[in-house]
Design a protein that fits this description.
This protein has 37 helices and 2 strands. By secondary structure, the chain is mostly helical. The chain is globular and about 95 Å long. The N and C termini lie far apart (154 Å). Residues 683-759 are annotated as: Disordered. This is DUF4220 domain-containing protein.
Length: 759
């Protein structure tokens, strides 16, 4: 009991101070590491960031509750004045730094709960200050508290508002109004618009162009990129007039801006109120620091005084940092350009280059630039990291310490962290996408969206329907006549998408391993590494990030196929050879099994996909051996995988794309936004169809509206005039018998008249 008694005494004396320092430390970690999520999905920094995000709220809430319920037994009466002064800083910690408002997308959905939490915490902090500072006549600590409390409450309200505005439902409801504001074509955007003529865009210029096109990315994330009433969507055509490097860079910048809206306070910082708060905050904390400096500290603990100075100085430095970043951000340029300002002021700030000079100066003062030498706009780019998973390599690699992995997997599954553990376990599968492979992929994607302009035959052109409903069938139908297969391959694309990836991944691995390597290596286009990268990337999504793929999540089918592949390796392979050689040997084993028995694997569900993949590889190998067209065959396989990549990106749910932005981003998300840029142009339609639809949907010019109104007015006057004219009474229908008698009478009269005239 002695140890427990001493521990209780220590916590009674120092527990509150430990909690306050923990809250401060958690916010410091959030400030330093919040940007890591733009580039990484796992690692110790992500774990540290998650712990800090949880700890920041828990510690601040606990400390405020402790202060509210204390009755003088925790600290002495004199000490309580200074400790109570920490309450506004705890509210500041609950408000969090500007560079993170939500850790996960689900946090934005809980903004209403955070609002109730805000009311309770503000009431508790106000009560603490009133009871322990105001009622005790604490001198200069009273005005210092009255300065810091409203500032802290405002910062906390900002976070709650940022969470609400980061909710996809709220973005959807406000996107149309905000699009009209952000897409206003001021003189600043006039300069940005000419950037499409530049061969290679720098990071800053690409970011400015991304701001101009951001309304399209924002609408795509919540609803649809095509706005038939908008006259500004034509601006996104600029992205297809750029080189692939610039096109990719602009889209990556757009997604980084979307990250700002979803996971930071950007939606509330870059407003008139946000700028006002950031101008006032450094001044307010400076005054509060001076008031505390002249506050008599007799009877106060030295440690409490040091903690208070730490809180004040840190608050001032952070406020100054947020002010510099806000003024130097390109969000400010977009904000000023979209708002109705006096023409002279807008021209002086945006069109003369003064804002850009101010931007460069403020950026040079950014702590990240001063300390780490990081270019502020460079951190927004996607790190070109993709996951790669090869099933044959997975079955043949050395699995030392397997029991530890199995134990951790069982534990993670039990506590509901299976996906998190799976991501961490496969972090070794993350690799940088080679530049030449990235070039091949984006150039081919660009060709897809421009195929209606370059194709000689309309049947070869891609339409948006082909991209969003097919996953390789179109590429296979467009194959050269030299690559006619002995078997109709259209049936290979009729299964579930993830099942199709499994079959084509296995078939591709067998083909690339068993084909004539001399013919493959002679190709200078670099198709083999590009095919391997796309095949293993989509296979990684099946194995690890199933939420990033459309259709049914066939986890069990993947597991039984992997198990069947492992059993074949154990039975026919040699575990002593290297992993690379083992992969080649396993591919050869599968090929021989299919060659010796055409019906192999079809009778068993576990090996059915292996048999289909081996059959695919068998047909590809036959073509490569029958014709000297290895280059065209590799082009065909690459085209099929590009189509699968496009389908995966365009058919994945928007919420999954939004979630992945906080986990380092994804190649399929970039491909999806590029496709959304092509959406307004209805790719694949003939020129006459596109023109007809454009004419029917396009907003009419004022002169056309005037002519139409005059024509409608003239038609209305003619209609009224006809109504006023006297009309003849309608004829009464005559019975058929009466009508026949009348005809007979007329005939007799006519005959009589003829006879009379003859006489």
């Amino acid at each position: 009991m002695g140890a427990l008694s001493r521990a209780a005494h220590f916590w009674n004396e120092w527990g509150l101070r430990v909690v306050v320092l923990s809250s401060f430390s958690a916010n410091a970690i959030l400030f330093l590491f919040a940007g890591v999520r733009r580039h990484r999905a796992s690692g110790w920094r992500i774990l540290l960031l998650w712990l800090a995000y949880q700890l920041a709220d828990l510690t601040a809430t606990y400390a405020l509750g402790n202060l509210s319920l204390s009755r003088g037994t925790v600290v002495l009466t004199r000490e309580h004045e200074l400790v109570a002064f920490w309450a506004p800083f705890l509210l500041l910690h609950l408000g969090g730094p500007d560079n993170i408002s939500a850790y996960a997308l689900e946090d934005n959905k809980l903004s209403l709960r955070q609002g109730f939490h805000l009311v309770a915490q503000v009431a508790g902090a106000s009560y603490v200050l009133y009871k322990h500072v105001y009622l005790r006549n604490s001198g200069t600590l009273i005005p210092a508290s009255f300065i810091m409390l409203p500032l802290a409450v405002t910062k906390y309200i900002e976070r709650v508002c940022a969470l609400r505005r980061g909710d996809l439902r709220d973005i959807r409801s406000s996107s149309k109004r905000q699009q009209q504001e952000l897409s206003a074509q001021g003189c600043g955007w006039t300069q940005v618009g000419c950037l499409r003529t530049v061969g290679k865009l720098g990071n800053d210029k690409a970011l400015m162009l991304a701001h101009k096109m951001f309304h399209l990315c924002k609408r795509a994330m919540v609803d649809s990129s095509v706005d038939l009433e908008s006259t500004s969507d034509h601006g996104s055509s600029e992205i297809f007039e750029m080189p692939w490097t610039s096109m990719s860079k602009v889209v990556e910048m757009e997604l980084s801006l979307m990250y700002d809206i979803l996971y930071t306070k950007a939606s509330v910082v870059y407003t008139w109120g946000g700028y006002l708060i950031r101008f006032i905050s450094p001044l307010a904390t400076t005054i509060a620091t001076l008031l505390f400096w002249i506050y008599p500290k007799d009877g106060q603990r030295r440690g409490d005084v040091i903690i208070t100075y730490i809180l004040l100085v840190a608050a001032f430095l952070l406020d100054l940092t947020w002010l510099v970043r806000a003024l130097g951000s390109t969000w400010t340029f977009a904000f000023l350009n979209a708002r109705p300002c006096p023409a002279r002021l807008q021209h002086a700030l945006l069109c003369t280059g003064r804002w850009r000079r101010l931007h460069r100066v403020l950026v040079s003062l950014d702590p990240c630039h001063l300390v780490l030498g990081i270019e502020p706009s460079g951190y927004r780019l996607w790190p070109s990291t993709i996951g790669r998973y090869n099933m044959l390599h997975e079955c043949t690699r050395d699995r030392g310490g397997r029991w530890v992995t199995d134990l951790c997997t069982t534990l993670a599954t039990t506590i509901g962290l299976e996906d998190t553990w799976n991501e961490f376990q496969h972090s070794r599968c993350l690799f940088e996408l080679p530049k030449h492979v990235k070039e091949l992929v984006f150039e081919r994607i660009k060709q897809r969206f421009l195929s209606s302009k370059s194709a000689h035959d309309d049947r070869d052109a891609y339409s948006m329907k082909d991209i969003t409903t097919l996953w390789g069938d179109k590429a296979f139908k467009r194959r050269p006549s030299e690559l006619q297969m002995e078997v109709d391959f259209e049936v290979k694309f009729g299964r579930e998408f993830q099942e199709d990836i499994l079959v084509w991944h296995i078939g591709t691995c067998i083909f690339l391993s068993c084909a004539d390597q001399q013919l493959i290596n002679k190709e200078e286009t670099g198709m083999k590494p590009a095919i391997e990268a796309l095949s293993e990337y989509l296979m990684f999504l099946v194995a690890v990030r199933r939420h990033m793929l459309p259709g049914l999540a066939l986890r069990s089918l993947f597991e039984v196929t992997l198990q069947a592949l492992g059993e074949i390796w154990v039975k026919h392979g040699k575990s002593s050879i290297s992993s690379a050689a083992g992969k080649e040997k396993l591919a050869e084993v599968l090929r021989k099994k299919k060659n010796s028995d055409k019906d192999w694997g079809l009778a068993h569900a576990k090996s059915r996909l292996l048999a289909d993949g081996a059959e695919l590889a068998f047909q590809l190998l036959n073509v490569s051996s029958s014709h000297n067209n290895m280059s065209k065959l590799l082009e065909l396989i690459f085209d099929v995988w590009v189509d699968k990549l496009l389908f995966a990106g365009t058919r994945c749910t928007r919420e999954s794309h939004a979630k992945q932005l906080s986990r380092g981003g994804e190649l399929t998300t970039i491909v999806w936004i590029i496709a959304e840029h092509a959406g307004p142009f209805r790719i694949g339609e003939t020129s006459d169809e596109a023109r007809d639809k454009t004419i029917s949907y396009a907003p009419k010019e004022p002169q056309e509206k005037k002519k139409e109104a005059e024509e409608n007015k003239r038609k209305e006057e003619e209609r009224k005039k006809k109504q006023q004219e006297p009309t003849e009474p309608p004829e009464v229908p005559v019975p058929i018998e009466a009508e026949s008698k009348r005809e007979e009478t007329r005939s007799r009269r006519s005959n009589f008249a003829t006879l009379y005239s003859a006489r």
